Amino acid sequence: MQLRWIRFLVMKILRLASLLIAVSVISFWLVSLSPVDPIQAYIGADMLRVGTEQRQAIASYWGLDLPPMERFIRWAAALLHGDLGTSMIYRQPVAEVIHERFSNSFWLMASSWILSGIIGFVSGVIAAMKKDTWVDKMITWYCYTLVSTPTFWIGLMLLIIFAVWLGWLPVGLGVPAGVLAEQVTIEDRLRHMVLPMLTLSIVGIAPIALHTRQKLIDVLTSEYVRFAIARGEQGLGLVLRHGLRNIALPAISLQFASFSELFGGAVLAEQVFSYPGLGQATVEAGLRGDVPLLLGLVLFSTLFVFIGNGLADFLYQIVDPRLRGGGRA
Length: 329
Known about the structure:
It is found in: Cell membrane. InterPro entries: MetI-like, MetI-like_sf. Belongs to the binding-protein-dependent transport system permease family. Its main location: membrane. By secondary structure, the protein is mostly helical. The protein has helices at residues 2-32, 38-43, 52-62, 68-80, 94-129, 134-147, 151-165, 186-220, 223-230, 235-257, 259-273, 278-287, 291-319, 321-327. The chain is globular.
């Protein structure tokens, strides 16, 4: 048993290392092809006041005058020592920027992920149990509509309705404007997080609900469930006894595999609500040519998604007895 888990962890670590190397090389190559001039983005509106010598001094300070290959080797060597570099936008170490922004994004993404998973799973089960009724058609219509709806559009609609028209929630930001950090309460942070969280949750409901519905319909039409019905089992008891165990694995896999969509949705939602999280930092780093921060965020998001998929594999082996027999590592 222990040998199997050790092999599982070793394989995961090797795959993670190869993935991070590939992502680093490809990301740096793509960033080097970007038309954004990092020096111009760094100087901003004062570009006309900066002379050629000052521009060269800035490029030399940030290492932008070096060939791309030499810059990558220096960056990779520093990364091996745990140094992600310094952000050109925030003038802080990249690790500190990511830590600060992730503390905001974590609660946003975690609450959205849990809420969308629970609502999506329950909606899928209800739709399958009420197949071909008005309840099923309403849930299916709702899901198909959401699947084809952009995240930023949902965010804008929620912003207009609940912040502008009704005035129930703040328009944006992570905390009230003009309030000192020590005076910000937990209630203030929660009120500012509600609309971005609802945006991500609403978008995440559709895939898990549609997938759960179809899987449960397949289970309920199987031979062994028909046999159970012939023995007198029916209703919620039939679903709990024969259905949930069979649809739990696909639901777990799909929900953990949605980490990449969750992170991508957070980028758009945080941008709409000016929420100070990783998504907004990623957009700023890309638009302003902050290469160290952008690469650090790419590596961190890769690690984030990989951990999500790794947890799905781990739970697979916990939930499914067939995998505990050693058939998969």
